[in-house]
Design brief:
Elements: E1 2-7, E2 11-18, E3 21-29, H1 36-49, E4 59-64, H2 67-81, E5 85-87, E6 97-98, H3 108-120, E7 125-130, E8 133-139, E9 144-152, H4 154-163, H5 184-211, E10 216-220, H6 224-227, E11 236-237, H7 241-252
Parallel strand pairs: 1-4, 4-5, 6-9, 7-10, 10-11
Antiparallel strand pairs: 1-2, 2-3, 7-8, 8-9
Helix pairs in contact: 1-2, 3-7
Function: Catalyzes the phosphorylation of pantothenate (Pan), the first step in CoA biosynthesis.
EC number: 2.7.1.33
Enzyme class: transferase
């Protein structure tokens, strides 16, 4: 069994994976001020909740887009499992053929998503990850990562809207009864839900037009479940995509 961790700007996704599959997935807040010991205690508490015994973990792997947290978390995990932890980045084999201007700029989360999607779905592929930012990755029919786009995340856009306007308040991300909102709250809900769904539909149409062929579309991330059901395109939702990719990369680097 391995401990797989993905560090995002807002949340850290933690999961344990064995030969049978993913044992659990949990999220905790990304906190730049937490110490190595504080992260170790939090992780230990999570594993105790799921009855993961000391010594059950053979190793760990971390992907991170928050450099300030990466090393602190690596030390925290090694404190628990008493073995070196792999960090997704230079030096690790991934099997992904990256054809962007500077492959080193590809975020580890996007790399891991792409590795997992390639292992499970036919190409060409469009991979959407909906977190602090909504990212779209494109893999062509030759199984090459050719690029993508970045859009403000749903919550990021909502927080910005509320903080820069005097009369708008925070809302829950649930669809209104009608697309055309008849009050301020429903208007905001419609804009957030249907607006972001339309963004995905529109980007997918343009990507397929540029590629000249239909794509398999896979979405993941904390907000995919709120937005994807309102898209007009058929999009597969896989909440476990990142952890699956981390497991694949871990196995490639045993």
């Amino acid at each position: 069994m391995i401990l797989a961790i993905d560090v995002g700007n807002s949340n850290i996704v933690v999961g344990c994976i064995d030969k049978k599959g993913i044992r659990f997935i949990e999220r905790m807040s990304t906190d730049l001020n937490k110490t190595e010991l504080e992260y170790a205690i939090t992780l230990k508490n999570i594993m105790e909740i799921y009855e993961i015994r000391d010594g059950a973990l053979e190793g760990g792997i971390i992907s991170s887009v928050v450099p300030q947290v990466t090393e602190v978390l690596r030390c925290a995990v090694e404190k628990l499992i008493k073995t070196p932890v792999k960090i997704v980045g230079p030096g690790l084999k991934t099997g992904l053929n990256i054809l962007i201007d500077n492959p080193a700029q590809l975020g580890s989360d996007l790399l891991v998503d792409s590795v997992a999607a390639l292992a499970e779905h036919p190409v060409p592929l469009i991979i959407v990850d909906m977190g602090t930012a909504t990212t779209v990755c494109v893999i062509n029919s030759k199984r090459q990562y050719i690029g993508g786009m970045i859009v403000p995340g749903v919550r990021t856009a909502l927080d910005s809207l509320v903080s820069h306007t005097s009369l708008l308040q925070q809302i829950s991300l649930e669809p209104p009864k009608k697309v055309i909102g008849s009050n301020t709250i429903d208007g905001m809900k419609s804009g957030m839900i249907y607006g972001n769904a339309s963004i995905l539909d529109g980007l997918i149409d343009r990507i397929e037009e540029e590629l000249g062929e239909k794509c398999t579309i896979v979405a993941t991330g904390g907000l995919a479940g709120a937005i994807v059901p309102h898209c007009r395109r058929h999009i597969l939702v896989d909440d476990d995509l990142l952890l699956k990719g981390l497991k694949i990369i871990y196995e490639k680097n045993r």
